[in-house]
Amino acid sequence: MAIRRRDFLKSTAAAAASLGLPRLARGAEAASIYDLERFGNARILHITDTHAQLNPVYFREPSVNIGIGEMAGRPPHLVGRAFLDHFGIRPDSADAYAFTCFEFEKSAGRFGKLGGFAHLKTLVDRLRNDAGEKHSMLIDGGDLWQGTGLANIMQGRDMVEAANLLGIEAMTGHWEFTYGEQALRDNLERFKGEFLAQNVFLTEEAAFNDARAFDKATGRVFKPSIIKELGGHRVAIIGQAFPYVPIAHPKRFTPDWTFGIREEELQKHVDGLRHTDKVDAVILLSHNGMDVDLKLASRVTGIDVILGGHTHDAIPQPVAVKNASGTTLVTNAGSNGKFLGVLDLALDKGKVSDIRYHLLPVYSELLKPDPAMAELIGRLRAPHVTDWSEKIAAADRLLYRRDNFSGPVDELICAALRSELDAEVALSPGFRWGVTALSGQALTMEDVLAETAITYPETYVQEMTGSQIKNVLEDICDNLFNADPYYQQGGDMVRAGGLTYTCTPTAAIGSRISELKLNSGKALSANHRYKVAGWASVNGQQGAPVWDVVGKYLRSGRLTPERLGSGVTLKGVDGNPGIAGQG
């Protein structure tokens, strides 16, 4: 299958330059970047990891996203200049701003926010209309219902309404499961599309007790796939939910279900679609994370394209992976509504003869908001706008989260936990969702909730020995840097406020973390007990919600005295292009 290199990567910069405007101009000239050449007979549009961001956002891509072993220096583990050079993107272009951290704050002033469901709706409708009736579909890769205060209060119902209006026909899940089975099923009753997950099964006990399942013979909880006729051809979409839900989140949300990658079951299902259902194409809608998908593509045969998510990697071109029966293309479509993946297929009987793929940034300045979607968003938000719009602080610097080790948003959270809960050390999860605030931007409770809104937000304080703290850091570091992608869960490193340490990502488990010290410079003692604060524990806690703790801290007039990024020293990764300024 031939892959055409995206020729639109430079077009946004050219359009802006020709207009001579400091910001992208809305109108026919600038919007022509979305005029894709008609190709093939089927178009699949793909979004993922929106995290309930209904309105346009600023979101800075990582400056540290280290690849280890075979993944060093390969997508998705490229950042900054290395990313731009690899994909041929001009450093001064709008696409450099959308896809990388390069000169982010300066570029944010030029190009504005990205995403927003009203703007996305305009683009989706345009691209579906261009493809022609019955030639296209829109699918979502999960993490659609979680990530904002509104979604948390409504348990994702707001996003179901938005998804229905947007026209999503199939989705899979991850954070959706953290609302619990009943809320999940209630939402799926309202959802007009299909929820697909080939890798979620009943536990033995649940099956014995005749628990609800899509297929009681196999124990599959949800429909594994659908077959959609596009352009007169049969296209199969298989859902692959996040494989590690009961490990990454409280087991109480999904007590009757087991998860996993489920290679054997997936291969059997693909074979059935190919040989029994006689489909012309097989697409895996995955929430595995890109490194996991790359390994999966080398081991499971018969999949044409993996449309991936979970790790929030915005990758302009598919990665081709060879396996025993041919080649599978692997993509990942970013996060927060910033991007829309466009997969155009030339289908023949029983096969895909050619493919074109584009990952389009959703430039809010270029796209007129769809009136119906804008009205829906306004109506959903109206009951909460007054409470959430109060200014409680101003950003003293660029506040972002996404990076393997550091992020000023989590510095702020750690500072709040230590201060308000009187702790020596604070631990904050390495979540990859959450938006970016520019220097000087007013901060509201809505902004705080966009970084903390989960269904298990309770804070805690407990005593831990220095040895226990090190073990926590080692365990999470292995989730990030294990040489086998199947042991990676896709988040970033836990943020540790009040501590400095050295990390050697290339070392073996148990040997990556060293030289742990308190901020005072005193070495951490293995047997001494320290007062540690945190939140988002998979075990039940009774403390105040983290957003209340952070809100109180911000209202006190303090902001971010800690500099988490300077608290982590990296070893063994010199020259790694997954670190901005290297490679």
What are the salient characteristics of this protein?
six-stranded mixed sheet, 2 domains, alpha/beta
Describe the structure concisely.
The chain is of the alpha/beta class and about 575 residues long. It is built from 19 helices and 23 strands. The longest helix has 16 residues, at about 465-480.
Q: What does this entry look like structurally?
A:
This protein is α/β, with parallel strands linked by helices. It has two domains: 36-57 and 113-378, Purple Acid Phosphatase, chain A, domain 2; 387-570, 5'-nucleotidase,  domain 2, CATH 3.90.780. Helix content is 29%, strand content 20%. It has 19 helices and 23 strands. The strands form six sheets. It has a six-stranded mixed sheet with strand order 4-3-2-1-13-14. Strand 13 (339-348) and strand 14 form a beta hairpin. Helix 8 packs antiparallel against helix 14 (371-381) and helix 16 (408-420) packs across helix 19. The longest helix is centred in the last third of the chain and has 16 residues, at 466-481. The radius of gyration is 23 Å and the shape is globular.
Across the major sheet, the strand order is 4-3-2-1-13-14
What is the beta-strand fraction? 15-25%
CATH class of the largest domain reads Alpha Beta
CATH homologous superfamily label of the largest domain = Metallo-dependent phosphatases
In CATH, the architecture of the largest domain is 4-Layer Sandwich
* Shape type: globular
Specify the biggest β-sheet: 6 strands, mixed
Mean pLDDT: 93
Structural class: alpha/beta
> Which percent range fits the helix content?
25-40%
Unreliable spans are 1-23
Give me the number of helical elements.
19
Distance between the termini: 31 Å
Based on CA atoms alone, the radius of gyration comes out at: 23 Å
CATH topology of the largest domain: Purple Acid Phosphatase, chain A, domain 2
The beta-strand count equals 23
How many separate structural domains? Answer: 2
